[in-house]
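A common beginner's mistake is to predict each chain separately and then try to dock the pieces by hand. The better habit, illustrated here, is to supply every component at once so that their relative placement is modeled jointly.
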Amino acid sequence: MIRRKLSLAAAVATATALTLTACSGGDTPAADLTSVIIMAPFLEAQPPSADGAVQKKLEELTGKQVKINWAPNASYEDKTNITLAGSDIPQVMVIQTKSPGFVKNAQAGAFWDLTDKLDKYPNLKTTFPDIQKNASVNGKVYGLFRERSPMRTAVMFRQDWLDKLGLQPPKTVEDLYKVAKAFTEQDPDGNGINDTWGITIPKWGALGTNSPYDVIEEWFGAGNRWTERDGKLVPSFETDEFLQADRFIKKMVDEKLINPDFATFDPTKWNEPFFNGKGGMIVDVDSRVSVLVNLFKQADPNNFQNKVGFVGNLVGPDGKLHAHPTDGYSGFLAIPKASVRSEAELDKVLQFLNTMNGKDVAVLLNNGIENVNFTVQDGKAAAIKPETPEGKAVSTDIKSYAQLGMNVAGNQFYPVKQPSDYEQQVFDKRTDVMAQDLKSAVYNPAAPYVSETYVAKGAQLDNIVADARIKYLAGQIDEQGLKDAIKLWDASGGNKVKEEINKLWQDNK
Amino acid sequence: MKIHNTRGGRIFDAVNYVFLSLIGIITLLPFVYVFAGSFATEAEITRRAFFVWPEQFTLGSYEYIFATPAFVRALVTTILVTAVGTLVQLAFTVTMAYPLAKKTLRGRNVILSLVVFAMVFSGGMIPTFLLVKDLGLLNSYWALILPAAINPFSLIIIKNFFQELPAELEESAKMDGATEIGILWRILLPLSKPVLATFALFYAVGIWNDFMSPLLYLSDNSKWTLQMYLRQVTAASDLLGTGNVDPNYIPPEQGIKFAVIVVATLPILIFYPFLQKHFAKGMLIGSVKG
Amino acid sequence: MAAPVIDTLAGERVRKSAPAPRNRGRFSVHFAHYKWLYLLLLPGVVYFAVFRYAPMYGVSIAFKDYVPFLGVNGSPWVGFRNFEDFFANPDFPRLLGNTLILAFLNLGVAFPLTIVLALLLNEVRLSILKRTVQTLVYIPHFLSWTIVASLSFLLFALDIGPLFQLLNTVMGTNIDFLSDPAWFRPLIVLQEIWKNTGWGTIIFLAALATVDQDQYEAAIIDGAGRFRRVWHITLPAIRSTIIVMLILAIGQMLNTGFEQIYLMTNALNREVADVFDTYVYFVGITQGAYSYSTAVGLFKSLVGIVLIFGTNWLAKRFNQSGLF
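With all components supplied together, the output reads:
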């Protein structure tokens, strides 16, 4: 282990020394990159071990010594800033979100501007130019974005309740209301007590965070955070559709179709009302469907197949489907200038990343090692059961290695085969529904743009409207109060934000 | 020691005992829930809002945690670092507190002012990080111990305690020819056991619970402490509802959270009762007479 | 004739033999006499110099627009702009008010309760009960605020929480404690009491352990009852500890702690919930603003130091021992 570290250190030292000498002139070709240091977050309880099978295979496939500094994702932003402030900067850093902190560092020159540099690498040329634009900072691409399925919105409901009441899955927002009402008033669990309600919404409300409120507002046609009206960009909450949507939600609140403690309900307990037969519907990401199915499966492995049903986005009152997407990416892999000093070196690192985004490595990072923890069946990765110790080590590790996946040209790895036929059906249906909805996705036109005023006071400003929305729904203020709050947003700096966003938008059209 | 108890005194005692027992239960109950939850399945935790023993007992959460040697290593590491660190920090603090307890010492007030000042003002996370780096302490366990070697608050309390001790002790020792260090070691420290025990506990808990230092200073995964894991497991699911989480992420089951809390908390909980032995009353009896 | 018993280590010592070096006179003489003490002092002083004072230049971050990549020196200087933004912010009076109110509530309620609990524990003579409760009572200190918040949500849950039902039945009302602004502060203080009172008793119990038992015996013989014994012997014995703890608590007053409040804040009670620390967090996530949080931290530190020295001076005026 020590010898390995020494040789690694020697390799890094050599590489650094060589690159330093190479940097003295202009763009003299750098020595071949023999090792790469990456900083990445891990979300599991423990990081992968440095001499695990996945690590070895990764180095084999890329032909380089790859040292990954795994940092816990709690406080990852602090760790990023510390790293940038220090002097041991890795060559590749995973950045989790396009936070203003990141933007500041990028604009100060911390990272390479990769706009127009990526197309000559076959695996790095993206098939999602819209998402790449979203991930950019005012048009400048500061890293390889990590593609994450852009369409994730689903409405899930207790299928057994639906069946008992003889209802159909909702297709429009009107249907949503009807089903919620039925769940509340018609005793769907058949226990004779009036103790059920329609939709459960937890404490949530920051704008533009894919909350149920954001989703429903989009269904009504208010747009996704920002929307174009009369040739200009306006925030979604300044539209009439926003008010209509909130009136709709308020109607449901007043009729007790939504849990009365929506302003304070603990989000970590979101599954409970659904599971315990109290709240029949949830509007959230489609992965929650599988989580719920799994809960029922744990509770009763023989009888869980008919409990959870779901649909995708719902058609709005205007008869159109405005599907709510996420930004489509979850941060990116950025290349710090302090450790990658020349264009030639950058080329080497990009070549490395090109290999990382190829099929072989993608399969390794996301599926594992064939015949150790999975086999390929019908184009899917089926887990090998019973799990061997090696297999378990690999499948635990890849949960973290997947953080390195960029997938800018789509998923190159195998979808995972689900443990049972029923679950496979659910999974496939999720994939289909989401793919279908993606066609009607309404993106946030302002996503690439960073407004200075927003950076300075955006969160507080947004709170004005977000809080007002909740207060309105709770009946503490009336619609005029909500409108006043929106005006207050404007007066407190929102007007400047609108100006800046519009200017950036115009300049970059 | 005979205590003559009046009737009022007896009523007071009864009420007090009941009251304190209630307090004991109120403080214990949530931890019992966490403990029980660590042995329960996700389905049961979701189903039952609160319980003190699971209906379906499972060791799954603990298996998950202890499966990787990394976690066990972190546990052992943390215990060692805490033990050594506590001794080091206590030593630093006591040796500085004793001289500062002498009001006739020149420069004392200046130094004390600087200590108080440092209690309130700080250079910040990044400058401290750069300092630790420049000292070559990065990735070393000493980075978890030295930057917090003296807690100004503890220093002041211990100093005050020394100040309160009777002067005769030192005088009679001096007349027997003892040196300053000898006085400190042989006389004052044994008498200060309650206070020393208290601050040993405080320092130990400080190191044990420290999450930021390992995060910032230990880049080598094999050196990690327990709190890193604890934070990792509990903080992640707290981000739900903020939209800040990688969409592919499914939070760890609640049972695992509970298990990590138990493992990260239990050792310290057991440490304290050992220290309690030193809180016996009347330490000064017999040391100064007439 | 022996000097009276109150003469402490810190006091001046009168000897029959060679005169003790005064505070006047040459430092070298003073130093020579006290050299062992200065030697003992050395490690600590070095520690403070290196680990506490050397990084102090970081305070300048408050006056810059700090970008980690550019470093402290490379980041542009902005003078007092961060402070101006902070004070000129229309929310500032509200934040100040909320922070101060919570601070005073904690000081006025939680602090005395800690002492009361310590005294009550001290009065227990059944050793097993005393030691058990002492151990149990500080367990909450180790549970994170997340757990405390979860528990609160459970206990005060609308309509179904046990405490919700209990309190509303007793008071004959229908209050949603978790969202009603009027109940936010009491809830926070209650959580603080539950979580930290037990831990806070440790210092006082240690001090109580050193109280001279002879005095109790004398008082009993004089016929003093329980309460009078506590009032006239126990409390005075730990008075200096109480004062020091109080001074230090006052110095930390503006640090309300971010996590607890953040977890309990929601759209309906934000008016009273927002304090400096949560505000800095919000600004932090939008700006990545070390500058801003450093500036606010600096402000809090300045207030803290003034409070500490102020109350210390006040204590001295009343002839109590203080920090010094």
